């Protein structure tokens, strides 16, 4: 069960790790002004609470040949199993890098990373082949302005320091 509130030291650890995820514990401890053992204990607690969900490398899509980012809005026919069917099918599609259940004009919003228009056309066909999907509208990204930046921890509720 997560702790209800975190303090400024937890926030400092999280902020540092968002910018420098490969920081060794000794260097992290120094950056947040803790002993290495105390810093490691807090970091492990943040991991156990699920606040730190994992660590990953940030990859350059263009250098990997994924030249196009497409946002795809889906409308689906509704039933008791619709979301599960759509979610399971999308989870198996490697070009789907994010999927959100949304409110508004669409039911799902997908982010696709594809190398070219031909691949997008194939992926779009696969998505339209998912039974409950009744409409798909794509928007191609011209340029990414902000990409997976650190979360705004200033707005996060903390314990009184």
Automatic annotation (TrEMBL):
Signal peptide: none
Any Gene Ontology biological process: response to amino acid
Keyword Lyase: no
Keywords recorded for this protein, A-Z: DNA-binding, Transcription, Transcription regulation
A GO term for molecular function: sequence-specific DNA binding
Organism of derivation: Streptomyces sulfonofaciens
Name of the protein in question: AsnC family transcriptional regulator
Top-level taxon in the UniProt lineage: Bacteria
Annotated HTH asnC-type domain residues: 6-67
One Gene Ontology cellular component: cytosol
SUPFAM superfamilies: Dimeric alpha+beta barrel, Winged helix' DNA-binding domain
């Amino acid at each position: 069960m997560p702790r209800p509130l975190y303090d400024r030291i937890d926030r400092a650890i999280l902020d540092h790790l968002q910018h420098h995820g490969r920081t060794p514990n000794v260097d992290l401890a120094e950056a947040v002004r803790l002993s290495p053992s105390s810093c490691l204990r807090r970091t492990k607690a943040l991991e156990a609470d699920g606040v730190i969900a994992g660590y990953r490398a940030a990859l350059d899509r263009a250098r990997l040949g994924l030249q196009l980012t497409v946002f795809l809005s889906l409308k689906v026919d509704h039933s008791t199993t619709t979301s599960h069917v759509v979610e399971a099918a999308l989870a198996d599609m490697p070009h789907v890098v994010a999927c959100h259940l949304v409110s508004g004009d669409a039911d799902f919003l997908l982010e696709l990373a594809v190398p070219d228009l031909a691949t997008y056309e194939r992926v779009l066909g696969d998505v339209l082949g998912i039974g409950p999907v009744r409409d798909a509208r794509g928007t191609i990204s011209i340029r990414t302005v902000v990409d997976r930046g650190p979360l705004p921890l200033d707005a996060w509720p903390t314990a009184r320091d």
